[in-house]
Amino acid sequence: MARENGSRDLRKWIDQVDEVGSLQRIGEEVDWDEEMGAITYVSHKKEGAPALLFENIKDYPEGYRVLFNIFSSSTERLAVTMNEDPGLDERQLIQKARSKLTAREEPTQVDPADAPIFENTDTGEDVDLWQFPVPKMWPGDGGRFIGTADLTITRNPDTGELNMGTYRQMIHNENQTGLFTSPGKDLRLHLQKQWAKGEPLEVVAVYGVQPELFLASQLTFGEDVSELEIAGGVRGSPIEMVEGEITDLPIPANAEIAVEGKMYPGETKTEGPFGEFTGYYGRPEDDAEVNTVEAIHYRDDPILTCALMADYPGCDINLTYSVGRSARIWNDLESLGLPGVESVYTHPAGASGMAMTVVSIDQQYAGHAKQAATLAAQCPGGAYFSKFIVVVDDDVNPADTNQVIWALATRWDAERHTDLLTDTWSTPLDPSRNPADERPYGSQLIIDATKEHKYMDEFPPRTAIREEMYEEVVDRWDELGFDYEPPSLPIFYGETGSHGDSDEATSDESGDGDDFSMTM
Fold first, then answer.
1. Where exactly are the structural domains of the chain?
2. Domain 10-306 - what CATH class?
3. Residue 471 has pLDDT above 80, yes or no
4. What DSSP element (H or E) covers 13?
């Protein structure tokens, strides 16, 4: 048996989230056939619901476990993964993610004798994917999907660069899975290049994954960016890797379950459908490329990681996509030189942060809002499957849906403040685009919900209380009998424009109209 090293693996992460009350262990017998998925879906209709560790699965031996919804809508579990305070809220996590996703920690190599993933290895006729308690999640799914909370590692045949992504994988038989990839994704590009040479593409797929690797593998980065280095930056320490035994690819040394395989030219089998992150079944049953597994590596008492794809808040990738995408768009806007960006938020209910982007800006010149919107719509971090881009002023918190709707109701004129981009980058999984062969192309609605720049001086001031009055109320909060924390306010009186009593409104005590106090 391999020796445990001192780095964090999935089991230590489970202990950490258990300590903060964000894990539920289920010891009662549960069926892999729809029941695990149903329990996860129902329990995760509550925002912030705990991750579920199923410890007793019908038809499978004691010790074989399944972890569902590593992240879901839990800010606590995402913060633990990033080695941050579990008490951070979404906007604070986005701020942290901005630096975490640009940090880099090169992976480190581990001696195979010290790699937990090599505690057990099956090859040849011993390969059997059915040995793991793989769920069928939804009644209409085409099979049992072993690859949901997974990562897949491939190498660019031309450059040698590694790529790490998350792709759904359905079991066909003991040693084959269907591996579905959307057009434009890195694995598909690698596959096309390798097959053009008449050669199989080597694949490492990890089915019991460390959360920081799962997080990094979900997000889209440039070809020259290493997701392994990003995962290390997210965690704050290098990811431990070990060389594969069958392929020329690395394997996370602390993974629970990993396979090495090859995708042979032209080999496809019928795959799907699958209940997807949109809250609908994915593309209809169709042919998909096949990964033929030549070796399975797994730890003693392995933990299979699964991600339920569903409507918000039950979908496991809702929050991670939202936080990661928000951070990437914000960083993209700043790298493009756009001034005045105060905050970015992609709402997790919008198909896991994909469909709706809200940008808050301090308007500084004519056309600033439209510039921000179009850049957010088409920057690398925000272009894929984006549908609504809303720009609001800096007195509106993009993460507060009520404030955004208020800005839409009072600052947006549909006739004059709306634009449309067509033939944008979309996904075959978008059910709104028909017929299905048109789904790779989408459209984006640009909404300017800011105060109209040319009439800024005439725009009515919004209502607000004085900051000193707010502080007085907060000081008396318990005395007044409230049993919840006092909310932060986006702005105070004196920061909202002219009120007629200009001397008082612009005093040092109330603010000067520029240095607002929106809580980050």
1. 10-306, 317-458
2. mainly beta
3. yes
4. helix 10-19
